[in-house]
């Protein structure tokens, strides 16, 4: 089957969307499909892997049997006043034209956000007489409104209208959590909705019981490590970690280590310097084997979401942390989907996004409870292997795409 995939980020860009969809593309290729990926060139505002094949082979169109087509990221538009809406609009046009002048696929799969992917896919599928599957990863534009990223009423109306057009014209939907599924149902979506969690790569992410080189390099082998890895922006609300670390300065062997990039990183640095904290360290984002080493170096891992983020959001690194058998502390809303997974797996604790004191108390509880850490870490690993493996999840994508492309009568049995 010929599959067109549209995603804004793809390696060598480093983020969760790029990782997920590069792995998905490769898995679909291995299942016998012809896969074309339409994505952006690495932008100057993106974190990239300089060792990637992209830089060694001059942006090859063919990559491991995949057809990779790239458009400009239009990064320069974000630097001018009013440029972000222009970047959104022209990016939509670029993806649309790239798709229209590409071989007609049996089915199109899009990753959203950005929301304009849905508009591009709708136009392409309408003109080429094919279907598209909408993979909703973050609820845009709702999350933009809730976090205050978009306040202009005109833009809110435009984005809300675009959202309705996307939802009305998709053949089917893939979401990663029950909360996202419920959101679509409340929006009046009548099409099939499939709940498929985001996965981890079993070849890269697994518990490691060997000597961890990361610990030696950073001189923290005999410390109790509380770690965070990922984006550092407003939606993550990482300030609570700094405040919790400030409450634990009397414990010399507790070390908070945060790795990642994002607009909040300078703010976090300023907070650390202002409080004169020496029990917390900020590091760059880790890649590939280093990423796995970083997670495995921790005694306890953190995931965080600010109070303005919709309760349906589940951080992608949740499954990877669980796969490494690490106890979790989730700074999330108690009624959210991330909290529900942790409660179901019995693999950690949840803290409200504004309660730094409670976060510090739970860190101490796990610091003092070696047996407790081992028990809930084991539960995390078992749950991840049973529910979040790449093989299981990508096979479900395959079945959904086959159905949308008219090549299968099979329906994954968690459809609405």
Tell me the quaternary state: single chain
Per the CATH scheme, the topology name of the largest domain is: Rossmann fold
Tell me the series of helices and strands, N- to C-terminal: EHEHEEHEHEHHEHEHEHEHEHEHEHEHHH
The largest β sheet comes out as: 8 strands, mixed
Describe the model:
This protein is of the alpha/beta class. It has two domains: 2-199 and 389-404, Glycogen Phosphorylase B (Rossmann fold), CATH 3.40.50.2000; 213-387, 3-Layer(aba) Sandwich (Rossmann fold). 43% of the residues lie in helices and 18% in strands. It has 16 helices and 14 strands. It has helices at residues 16-30, 53-56, 83-100, 116-128, 142-146, 153-169, 178-186, 213-218, 239-246, 265-275, 288-297, 317-323, 337-345, 356-368, 370-387, 390-404, and strands at residues 2-6, 34-40, 62-63, 66-71, 107-112, 131-136, 172-175, 192-195, 224-231, 254-261, 280-283, 300-304, 328-331, 348-351. Strands 3-4-2-1-5-6-7-8 form an eight-stranded mixed sheet, with helices on both faces. Strand 12, helix 12 and strand 13 form a beta-alpha-beta unit. Helix 4 packs parallel to helix 6 (153-169) and helix 12 packs across helix 15 (370-387). The chain is globular and about 65 Å long. 45% of the residues are buried. The mean pLDDT is 87.
Keywords:
single chain; 416 residues; alpha/beta; Rossmann fold; eight-stranded mixed sheet; six-stranded parallel sheet; 16 helices; 14 strands; 43% helix; Glycosyltransferase_grp1; Glyco_trans_1; Glyco_trans_4-like_N; Glycosyltransferase; hexosyltransferase activity
């Amino acid at each position: 089957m010929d599959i067109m995939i549209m995603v804004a980020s793809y390696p060598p860009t480093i983020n969760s969307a790029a990782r997920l969809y590069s792995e998905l593309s490769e898995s679909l290729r291995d299942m016998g499909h012809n896969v074309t990926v339409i994505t952006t060139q690495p932008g100057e505002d993106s974190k990239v892997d300089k060792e990637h094949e992209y830089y060694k082979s001059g942006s090859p169109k063919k990559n491991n049997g995949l057809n990779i087509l790239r458009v400009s990221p239009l990064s320069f538009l974000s630097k001018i006043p009013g440029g972000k809406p222009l970047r959104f609009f022209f990016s939509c046009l670029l993806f649309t034209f790239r798709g229209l002048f590409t071989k007609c696929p049996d089915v199109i799969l899009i990753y959203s956000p950005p929301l304009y992917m849905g508009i591009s896919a709708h136009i392409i599928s309408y003109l080429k007489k094919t279907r598209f599957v909408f993979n909703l990863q973050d609820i845009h534009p709702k999350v933009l409104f809730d976090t205050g990223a978009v306040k202009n009423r005109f833009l809110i109306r435009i984005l809300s209208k675009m959202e309705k057009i996307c939802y009305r014209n998709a053949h089917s939907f893939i979401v990663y959590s029950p909360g996202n599924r419920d959101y679509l149902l409340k929006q009046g979506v009548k099409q099939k909705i499939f709940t498929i969690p985001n996965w981890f790569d079993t070849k890269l992410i697994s518990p490691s019981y060997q000597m961890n080189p990361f610990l030696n390099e950073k001189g923290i082998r005999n410390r109790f490590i509380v770690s965070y890895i990922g984006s550092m922006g407003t939606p993550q609300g990482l300030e609570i970690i700094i405040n919790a670390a400030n409450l634990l300065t009397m414990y010399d062997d507790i070390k908070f280590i945060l790795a990642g990039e994002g607009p909040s990183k300078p703010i976090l640095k300023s907070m650390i310097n202002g409080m004169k904290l020496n029990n917390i360290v900020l590091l760059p984002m880790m890649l590939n084997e280093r990423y796995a080493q970083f997670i495995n170096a921790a005694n306890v891992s953190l995931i965080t979401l600010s109070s303005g983020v919709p309760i349906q959001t589940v951080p992608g690194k949740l499954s990877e942390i669980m796969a490494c058998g690490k106890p979790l502390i989730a700074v999330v809303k108690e009624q959210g989907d991330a909290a529900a997974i942790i409660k179901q797996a019995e693999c950690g604790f949840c803290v409200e996004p504004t309660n730094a004191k409670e976060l510090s108390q739970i860190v101490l509880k796990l610091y003092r409870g070696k047996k407790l850490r081992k028990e809930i870490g084991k539960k995390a690993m078992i749950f991840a292997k049973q529910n979040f493996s790449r093989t299981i999840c990508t096979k479900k994508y395959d079945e959904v795409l086959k159905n949308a492309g008219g090549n299968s009568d099979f329906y994954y049995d968690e459809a609405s």
